[in-house]
UniProtKB/TrEMBL annotation:
InterPro entries: MobA-like_NTP_Trfase (IPR025877), Nucleotide-diphossugar_trans (IPR029044). The gene is mobA1. This is Molybdenum cofactor nucleotidyltransferase domain protein. Residues 23-182 form the MobA-like NTP transferase domain. It comes from Haloquadratum walsbyi (strain DSM 16790 / HBSQ001). GO terms for molecular function: nucleotidyltransferase activity. Keywords: Transferase.
Length: 208
């Protein structure tokens, strides 16, 4: 059930990716609710959480920037064989907003049309869900899109370049959530993918 004030739309059946959409993968958090271990380097479904998240974006053919912070050297090492770039957020303890800011700056510098912001602790998002965001962006006049499962808002999210200034001004722990609610053309994209609402916060969330 959709409790947000946004319409839920289905992605088009077919679409050619003509826009320059880039990805930002947030991997700077301290995993405080997980305990002493870093949840991003725990094993799930035969791989590490952060690697699964990164490989999904790469499989969707997206230029991907990983924003590092807590445990930066370790995260960089486990992703070293993947074709991603890295940015370091030295203010990661202040909240997710600063990581969104740093990641979006890369999209601004490369003059991307839009940016997809994904979370490093969401390893089960399917490639088709990422592609659905892009296809919907290209076929509908929507500048802000969030993935959804059965009408429930999830991640990743996509923002058109018109929101880059706002994204690079983010502070605190809201990330881009406030922009979704402030934008008049936000929509949820139904993905039929439970992975878009499954994230890892505690050890009990590790399944598979």
């Amino acid at each position: 059930m959709n409790n947000d004030p946004f319409p839920v739309i289905s992605p088009p059946n077919e679409s050619e990716q003509n826009s320059d959409v880039q990805a930002v993968l947030l991997a700077a958090g301290m995993s405080s609710r997980f305990g002493e271990k870093n949840k991003l380097v725990q094993s799930i479904n035969g791989g590490l959480v952060i690697r699964q998240a990164a490989k999904t974006l790469l499989a969707a053919d997206l230029s991907t920037t990983v924003v590092l912070g807590h445990d930066a050297d370790r995260i960089r090492e486990v992703l070293s064989d993947l074709s991603v770039s890295f940015r370091v957020n030295n203010e990661y303890e202040t909240g997710q907003g600063t990581s969104v800011k740093i990641g979006t700056q890369t999209a601004v510098q490369s003059e991307a049309d839009a940016v997809i912001i994904a979370l490093g602790d969401m390893p089960n998002v399917s490639v088709s869900s990422v592609q659905a965001l892009i296809a919907t962006y290209e076929c509908h006049s929507r500048s802000a899109l969030a993935s959804a499962y059965m009408g429930q808002r999830g991640n990743p999210v996509l923002f058109d370049r018109k929101h880059f200034d706002s994204l690079t001004e983010q502070q605190g722990d809201t990330g881009g959530r406030s922009i979704l609610f402030e934008t008049g053309d936000t929509a949820l994209v139904e993905t039929d993918d439970p992975g878009v609402v499954y994230d890892i916060n505690t050890p009990s969330d590790i399944i598979g």
